[in-house]
Amino acid sequence: MMKTPEELTELFRATGRKVTAQRQCIFRVLQGDESHPSAEAVHSAAVREMETISLKTVYQTLHDLAELGEIASLDLGTGMIRFDPNVDDPHHHLVCRHCGKVRDLVAAFPDLQIPRGADLGFEVGSAEIVFRGLCPECQQSTLQPSL
Amino acid sequence: MMKTPEELTELFRATGRKVTAQRQCIFRVLQGDESHPSAEAVHSAAVREMETISLKTVYQTLHDLAELGEIASLDLGTGMIRFDPNVDDPHHHLVCRHCGKVRDLVAAFPDLQIPRGADLGFEVGSAEIVFRGLCPECQQSTLQPSL
DNA sequence: ACCGTATTTACAACAAGTGTTGAAAAACAA
DNA sequence: TTGTTTTTCAACACTTGTTGTAAATACGGT
Known about the structure:
The structure is a homodimer of 147-residue chains. The first copy, chain A, is built from 5 helices and 5 strands; from the N terminus they run ααααβββββα. Chain A is α+β, with helices and mostly antiparallel strands and 147 residues long. In chain A, strands 4-3-5 form a 3-stranded mixed β-sheet. The first copy, chain A, has a two-stranded antiparallel ribbon with strand order 1-2.
């Protein structure tokens, strides 16, 4: 899981960043969010506690957090960048091709070595696996042939 | 590889689509392109043969081709959708995190089974692996610390 | 060649995200 | 505390990739 708002506050101060009410609000919103929210979604949640916070501020803070390695920013092909507070244990993602829902898949795939010579000279740093399919809810709703 | 322009022409007619000079131009441009071009890149290449072709037409035709399964559209986190004429043999992708270059990695990863019970109820249809790293050229250019 | 319909085109709208700027707030020093 | 400096906030305009609209044009079956 992610650091607490208090720990993040300290981390921001320790790295020379200012701690503002807006940022702390974002810390709280992110805390325990498993839904891989978009910047827009984080903003909506933040507005509920702090009506005047701007979307730009949310973007800035999310970028700061990503830079510090406290959250991951993911482009999973759903049209917007999603943010994942879970950076502690390595995992991959399940993406619903119908509603765009994202879930963590905490499993290691040790056999992900690129066959010798097939890397075309790339210096490969990371591998992300995206499993696409239908989430339980969308399996329901796509049962009806009337869709 | 991809179907020839002639085969695509037939396929378009067979599926009730009209065959226009613009579309055939796009067919030719796509033919043998391994660079995973963006719509913009396809347009640029098409303009070289046909100055007046519009970007919108390129998008439309690429969508048609994707709908027919003749090309794949990929969102690999490079900021734009990339199109891949290679749909015949299953493969994954190497993405340069510096210049955005994309290369096919034709290799099967048979051990990509999700551990029993870890699928969270998803009905998983496909898995895409994106390997991120530096392409040979960008390894060169990032050697200089002056960058 | 004709005509109905799909297609192309220019143009504008759109969405996600970024640069700019005056105003406000934090940090720092005394 | 007060004043001073520096950073950040938030409204706005802008950029980029992509899509919608509507008029003009081209396809292709007759």
